[in-house]
Amino acid sequence: MQTNRLPLEGIRVVDFSWFAAGPACTEVLANHGAEVIRIECHTRVDGLRVLHPQPEGKYGLNTSGWYNNVNASKLSITLNMRYSKALDMALRLIAVSDIVAENYTPGTLEKWGFTYEKLQEVKPDIILLREPMQGSDGPHANFSGFGAVISPLAGISHLTGPSDRPPVGMGTHYTDYVINPGHAVIATLAALRHRNRTGKGQVIEVAQLESSVSVIGPALMDYAVNGRVQRRQGNRLAHAAPHGAFRCRGDDRWCVIAVFSDDQWRALCRAMGDPQWCREERFATLQCRKENEDELERLVEGWTSARTAEDVMETLQAAGVPAGVVQNAQDVLENDPHLRERGHYVYLDHPEAGRTAYDGPGFRLSKTPGRLRSPAPCIGQHTEYVCKEILGIDDEEIAQLVIEGVLM
Amino acid sequence: MADQADTPSALDDIRVLDLAGEAGMYCTKLLAELGADVVKIEPPGGDPARGIGPFYHDEGNPNRSLYFFALNSSKRSITLDITTTDGQTLFKRLLAKADVVVETFQPGYLDGLGLGYAELCRVKPEVILCSITGFGQWGPHSRYQAPDIVPVAMSGIMYLAGFPDIAPSYAYGNQSHYCGSIQATAGILMALLRRDATGEGQQVEVSRQEALSINQETAIQYWDIRHELRRRVGAEKRMPGMGLYECKDGYVMLMVGLPGFGSPWPTLVQWMEDEGKAEDLQEERWRNPLAEVSMQLISQLFSLEVDPEWVAFWKDRLSHIEEVLVRFLLGYTKRELYEEGQKRGLLIAPVNNPKDIVESPQLDYRRWFTPVEYPDLGTTIAHPGPPYRLSETPWRVQRRASQVGEHNQEIYCGELGLSKEQLSTLSTEGII
After folding, report:
1. pLDDT digits (tens, 9 = 90+) for B297-336
2. Interface touch A209/B172, C-beta < 8 Å
């Protein structure tokens, strides 16, 4: 039976993180009940707020689809940390919070005087989550970067794509959305559990480089042990054939097919109508198919290219052959019958951006499922609420702080 | 690691029964290295993943798979055939002392064995059951076969990767397993926090398609908000200094000129000048176009549906700058460009290969690679290190990846109280 209670109810997060990887972590916490307060500033706006996509004719700080998608269920206040009054207010907020999150270049918090010891003075069991690029120490600690350079740095670009083309990677800042924020969520929840059991807070450091290279472990061990430098192999795998994306009917339509066993191979042949070539000796075993893979792929594509990608997938899956449409965003959002039935995407009404789609949670709890409780906040939308309700500042003082530029 | 042995663990009171195949191996590794006691339950004969390369010294021996080692450190291993009645009885006895079960079977498979969630709750009411599959437990595709490439394709991320003139690119290295396992681990910890508070267990469901789809960046929003389809763009560059460049020994990624991100273009030109390779870029006519570059302009240049004439105008103005930059970068190695570039505050990164990463001075300084002893191989193997560092409850490798059934006696005799004769009978019958 589901309840309306969320697992992180009562947990408050002071969120200094910005751009994608940091907010994507606190997004998971917010969707599971934590009160996440983004600390923003008009003089140093989160870059995602000014990036695309934005609705036609509505370009502004509150309408970026990129920002909004990773900030649902959160509050936003504006606080200019160059003012000492702002620093005091941030400390007062931390004093009544559980977690502080940040992904600035190393030294920024220290510049404000916010060492862990300082934070502990106001909240002894505070959990401090830091997500620097490469860690707080070491020869590259101060090297700058963001999602776009992490995939190249972490080996993912080198290992992905066709062997005869440049290493362009995955076309996105891949590690910003699940790999780094996901590791950060795990570490934070572990720290929360430790705090609940012992009353002790701690400092978590998720160096984005270290978190990202964790997902190519076997290739690293292959070099460390065997001295082999793995290279990108396109869409093929050593122990499968055919294995790749095959052109289907229509504009830029593709279906992946993956055949590991001889049973799957025979099922694929039957599903294609047992053409003569399927019976040829040169495709009889996995080893034969690997040796003649170019020709094999050409012949399979001869069959797929006359059919729609959906037809290829459904026919092959019904026959027991792993296959899937290479779906584009329209397919994923609107056409995939499975995602629609599961309600993966959530539509929320935003006062400026209108009704837009957000990613649903990446895992589903049966009794206390996460949910998007509100659309992303407009910049500073909750400044007054946080000042009054959490910090107990009266209207007069708020007005004064606005005039002084502290709350901007 | 001995110096860490006395530090507390966040999960040292948690036992996990691990029925997971490849898709869940990273999940139970994460739990084990946060301190949980993970008991990996393999079918008699061992997990088929032990047969997947690369292998230690390329010896195709199932106890020497580096792929298996990488993903199974810190777990204990027992064998058990849960398809037999005796096997199921033993599983339930193990469950009585466990907190979490992780599995990756087809939806309904455990129900068919009488080991579904309801049945597990009868033995252990507060159990947390985590299921990781290609498409989740329900819905029209839930029984689809889902080796890694299938959810990668269906999630939308593959469509964004690669070159427009050829097939989309498949991401390296079972990313649906990693993303699915990361989501699952977060879900299990969420459920544990809830259980700590209320005493109640629950199910955690992960669809690897959904777990991956979150990586589409802005593709969903481009379609939703503007009805524009994000496509793969290959090595296309719209601005000099922003994208992939060839150098002496490989490639580097540049993100120079992004307002607010590192030093601006004049810094790069100054560097070229210092090396005597700026050619004519210090001339006024080449400074102007770069001075006009703003975040808004870049955002427009990179947006999907822009006026091609406007792009052509910019490209034309900037193409000479691009040519000089290409010539400059070809003269240096990726490491030279990285270190000197970063010294000047320029956002440059090398496209590292596994060798570069193993030899990285940064990872070396932070002792990221973690030596793990393999006495049976008479060697120590460098394992991937901590994905995160916790000051009070640090990530820790508990032991090397276990051999098949290495802990059968320890667990069946030591904990369940079976005699050695019983163990040997069960082994002969193929149950253990």
Report:
1. 776 766 676 777 777 777 777 889 999 999 999 999 999 9
2. no
Q: What is the average per-residue pLDDT within B6-13?
A: 92
Strands, DSSP E only, in A85-240? 99-102, 127-130, 203-205
**A121/A158 same-domain check:** yes
- Interface contact B387-A185, CB threshold 8 A: no
| Residue B377 near chain A (CB below 8 Å) | no
**Do A254 and A161 fall into the same domain?**
no
Report DSSP letters for A160-195, one per residue.
SS-TTS---TTSS-GGGTTHHHHHHHHHHHHHHHHH
Tallying the residues shown for chain B, one arrives at 432
- Picking from A142, A143, A144, A90, the residue whose alpha carbon sits closest to that of residue A112 is A90
Domain ranges of chain B: 2-216+364-428, 242-353
**A144/B154 CB distance under 8 A:** no
Considering the candidates A88, A125, A176, A349, report the single residue annotated as catalytic.
A176
Same-domain pairing of A190 and A91: yes
* Residues in B touching A211 (Cβ below 8 Å): 387-388
Q: Do B222 and A364 touch (CB under 8 A)?
A: no
A361-406 tens-digit pLDDT: 999 999 999 999 999 999 999 999 999 999 999 999 999 999 999 9
B113 interface with A at CB cutoff 8 Å: no
The pLDDT tens digits for A333-373 are 999 999 999 999 999 999 999 999 999 999 999 999 999 99
Confidence band (pLDDT; 50, 70, 90) for B295?
low
Q: How far is Cα B321 from Cα A123, in angstroms, rounded to an integer? A: 53
> What CA–CA distance (Å, rounded) separates B73 from B33?
8
The CATH number of whichever domain residue A90 belongs to comes to: 3.40.50.10540
Cross-chain Cβ contact A178/B70 below 8 Å: no
- Chain B residues lying within 8 Å of A172, measured CB to CB: 157, 160-161, 215-217, 219
Q: Is B199 on the interface with A (CB under 8 A)?
A: no
* Termini Cα distance of chain B: 32
- Contact map slice: B 412-431 vs A, CB within 8 A: none
pTM summary value:
0.97
B/e letters for A23-37, b = 16+ CB within 10 Å, e = fewer, are bbbbbbbbbbbbbbb
User: Residue B265 in contact with residue B255, Cβ under 8 Å?
Assistant: no
Range of the domain at A79: 12-215+345-404
User: How close, in Å, is residue A190 to chain B by CA atoms?
Assistant: 6
Interchain CB distance below 8 Å, A221 and B207: no
If we measure between CA atoms, which residue out of A204, A181, A250 comes closest to residue A21?
A181
Whole-number percent of chain A with pLDDT over 90: 95
When the pLDDT of each residue in chain B is averaged and rounded to a whole number, the result is 94
Pick from B31, B137, B213, B368 the residue to mutate for testing the A interface (most A CBs within 10 Å).
Answer: B213
What are the residues facing B346 on neighbouring strands? Answer: none
A331 is an active site residue: no
Across the interface, do A344 and B210 touch by the CB < 8 Å criterion? Answer: yes
How far B180 CA sits from the closest chain A CA (Å)?
Answer: 8
Q: Does domain B2-216+364-428 have CATH number 3.40.50.10540?
A: yes
**B242-353 fold:** formyl-coa transferase, domain 3 (3.30.1540)
Mean pLDDT taken over chain A: 96
Q: How many domains does chain A divide into?
A: 2
